[in-house]
Structures are given as structure tokens and as C-alpha cells.
Design a protein that fits this description.
three-stranded antiparallel β-sheet, 17 helices, about 50% helix
Length: about 400
């Protein structure tokens, strides 16, 4: 009886050891890198690493562990954090060696097919000829686009990959109105009231010296507190009264040194025309539209979401890592936008699918001049930007 119990115990131990061994063999199943055949253990190297031998082609090799995904996470944690490179392992030397390959990646924006109620758009300049247009909703970054400056073509390329929203809030960037009519023809447009106020303040200054300038500056400040249609009508009436009151004052002319006549109060006239243009386009008080408010709660009147929630954080990131080249500053913004998009891929998938400098340059060389502009680069930026970033020439390239 005792012998049978001991035998059963030994058998159970042996079966458990066989299970562990089989699991270990399954977990460490290695494929030959040459012929993709099955491999078996073949001793160890002097360093202690496991050596493997292919049963098919008899090649002996030591598989290397690919920790690129882990290093990418380390790279992104540094990029989005406040640590300097000197505070990283090896006083920055080890960190730079292990993460330099990730500066070659270009994180591209996803295709957004889900419709949003409100979308904010704005552009952030990284240099004299480097601007990134950004589009976001209340939670995520929906798209980004690299261009030399804000223009209708760049805005259209950005908006074409995003589902048309109910309302768009913008700061009135150059070319945006034209692009809006082309890409999102049914979307309503709300001009950021804070930018309207700032534009008037530039013309009047904070300490205007004429009664007309003082009253217009007060009107601009009151614009930020308009919350109902009744208040909007009163504000419009006050502005009309201001124009009638100072009509003759604004018509005054001055003769310059060349004997030419020009308006004496040219800056006030520019402020007046900017307000008239917004009232004519009906983009100043879109957030008070009753039909829109019945479908959307709390329609914003400013671009604070993108200015304070995205642009300020991007500027803080670039400030924490100041000294980066213009190309790396662009890629840093791309990385931040991608990791704050609705569904970013895992680090492993990012390394598989995202294009690199080499792959884009190869595609760029193979395509004709027309295809360069219309087919490839507009997915992430203007074709001319890639050419200026990567060009061999004896002459300097002034991006900053």
C-alpha cells in the first residue's frame, strides 16, 4: 500500500515536471532566421547566452531580444516629461544611443470617421517657415498637418481626413474660411471672441488717446461677456451707434510727406472693418444660434480648448527640451499629437506601420513632380516641406 502511494506521488511529480518542461519548450520555441525551420538548443556561448541550432539548415545562432517597443516607451516618457537627457541613464549617452532611431519615425494622423459636435482648429508656428495645423475636439487630437504657413490648401488637406462636424471654432487663420466652404460646407463657423478682442486691442491699444478709441476698446471688452441673443443685439446696436457718432471723425484725412492723402485714424478704421466683416459673415455670435443650442449644449465661443489644452502643452514640451533642431521639433509635436489621438497604436504596432525618413525619401524620389504634391506627402504635410528639410545644397536653408 505504501509503495503504491509513493509510486503515485512520483508519477504525479514526473507528470508535473513534464508539463513544466513542455510549457518551457513551447514558450521558448525559436525559428531559424534563415530558413524559418524549427530550432533546438545547442549549448551556450561564453557569455552564457543560449545557443540554438536549426534542424533543417544546421546553422547555429543566438537570437537577439528585440526591446525596441520598450525603448520607444522610454523615449516617449522622456519626450513628454521634464527630464533632461543628462538625467537619463548614462548621463544621456546611453539614452541617445538607444532612442536615436525613433527620431526617424513620422507618426501620421488617423482617419477620423466619427462625427463630432464641436471641433477646434488652430496653427502653431515652430519657425519662420514651419507651421503645424491642429484639429481637436473636447477630448482628443483629431488631426495635424505640416505646412510652411496657414493657407487654404493646407487647411483643406487637414480637414479632408476628418468627418464634418456641426460647428467649427477657429481664430480666423489665413485661408480657413475658403477651406471651410470646400471641405465642410455644411458646418457652422464660430470666430473666437477672444481673438476678436485681441485684434481690436492691437488697433486701439490698452490706453487709447481719443474718445472714439476709448469707446471702441470698451466695446471690445464687453464682447467677452455676451451670453444671450439679447446681449448680442444690444452690443451690435452700440457698435452701430459708435460708427454713426464718429463717422466724421473717422473720415478725417492727413497729407503725408509725398503729398498723398490717407486716413488720419487708419487703425480705428481697420478695427471697424474687421468687426463689420464678422457681422456680415455671421460668425461672431454663432454660439447663440437657437437651432444649434437645441442640439448641442454649451457651444464654446473661444478656442481655449486648443490654445490652453494643446498649444500651451506643446510649447511647454518644446521649452523643456529646447535646443532641438527644427525637424525634431516638428516630430516632437507629431508624437504628442499622435499619442493624444483617439486610438493610438501600441508601441510594437507603431514600429511596424509608421513611415521613416528612409521610406518617405524613397517614395518621394520615385514619384513624379505632380504625384509628390497630390498623392504622398499631403497625408502629413506639404511636399515642399519634405524637400526643404532634406536637400543637399551648398547654400544654407533658413527654417528658423
Amino acid at each position: 500500500m505504501l509503495e503504491s502511494i509513493e509510486i503515485s506521488m512520483v508519477n504525479s511529480v514526473i507528470s508535473s515536471l513534464e508539463t513544466v518542461f513542455l510549457e518551457e519548450e513551447f514558450m521558448k520555441h525559436v525559428i531559424c532566421p534563415i530558413c524559418k525551420g524549427e530550432s533546438v538548443r545547442n549549448g551556450r556561448n561564453k557569455s552564457g547566452s543560449q545557443r540554438w541550432s536549426c534542424r533543417t539548415c544546421s546553422i547555429t545562432f543566438t537570437p537577439k531580444i528585440d526591446n525596441s517597443a520598450k525603448q520607444l516607451k522610454v523615449f516617449l516618457n522622456w519626450l513628454f516629461g521634464k527630464k533632461t537627457q543628462k538625467e537619463m541613464p548614462g548621463e544621456g549617452r546611453t539614452f541617445r544611443r538607444k532612442t536615436v532611431e525613433f527620431w526617424n519615425l513620422w507618426p501620421l494622423p488617423p482617419l477620423i470617421e466619427t462625427k463630432s459636435d464641436v471641433i477646434f482648429v488652430d496653427g502653431i508656428y515652430l519657425g519662420r517657415k514651419a507651421c503645424i495645423l491642429i484639429c481637436c475636439d473636447e477630448k482628443y487630437v483629431l488631426g495635424w498637418y505640416l505646412c510652411r504657413y496657414e493657407h487654404a490648401g493646407a487647411w483643406t488637406s487637414l480637414m479632408s481626413r476628418i468627418a464634418e462636424p456641426e460647428i467649427v471654432v477657429s481664430d480666423g487663420g489665413s485661408g480657413f474660411t475658403k477651406a471651410l466652404k470646400k471641405a465642410w460646407s455644411k458646418a457652422e463657423h464660430q470666430r473666437c471672441l477672444f481673438h476678436v478682442f485681441s485684434q481690436i486691442k492691437r488697433y486701439t491699444t490698452t490706453r487709447p488717446k481719443t474718445p472714439a478709441g476709448i469707446e471702441l476698446y470698451m466695446l471690445a471688452k464687453d464682447l467677452l461677456h455676451v451670453e444671450t441673443n439679447e446681449n448680442a443685439n444690444k452690443w451690435t446696436g452700440r457698435f452701430v451707434t459708435w460708427m454713426e457718432k464718429y463717422q466724421k471723425f473717422l473720415e478725417q484725412m492727413t497729407i503725408d510727406e509725398n503729398g498723398n492723402k490717407r486716413p488720419t485714424h487708419e487703425r480705428l478704421i481697420k478695427a471697424q472693418k474687421s468687426i463689420l466683416r464678422l457681422l456680415k459673415d455671421e460668425t461672431m455670435f454663432t454660439y447663440l444660434d437657437e437651432s444649434l443650442r437645441s442640439k448641442i449644449d454649451n457651444i464654446p465661443s473661444t478656442t481655449n480648448r486648443i490654445e490652453g489644452g494643446i498649444n500651451s502643452r506643446l510649447r511647454a514640451m518644446l521649452r523643456d527640451h529646447r535646443g532641438l533642431s527644427i525637424e525634431r521639433r516638428i516630430k516632437a509635436v507629431f508624437w504628442w499629437c499622435y499619442m493624444h489621438s483617439p486610438r493610438p497604436l501600441s508601441a510594437t504596432e507603431i514600429l511596424k506601420v509608421m513611415p521613416t525618413d528612409k521610406s518617405i525619401a524613397e517614395t518621394y524620389r520615385r514619384m513624379t513632380a505632380h504625384e509628390k504634391k497630390d498623392s504622398s506627402i499631403p497625408k502629413w504635410g506639404d511636399a515642399v516641406v519634405w524637400g526643404e528639410l532634406h536637400r543637399s545644397s551648398n547654400y544654407p536653408i533658413y527654417w528658423d
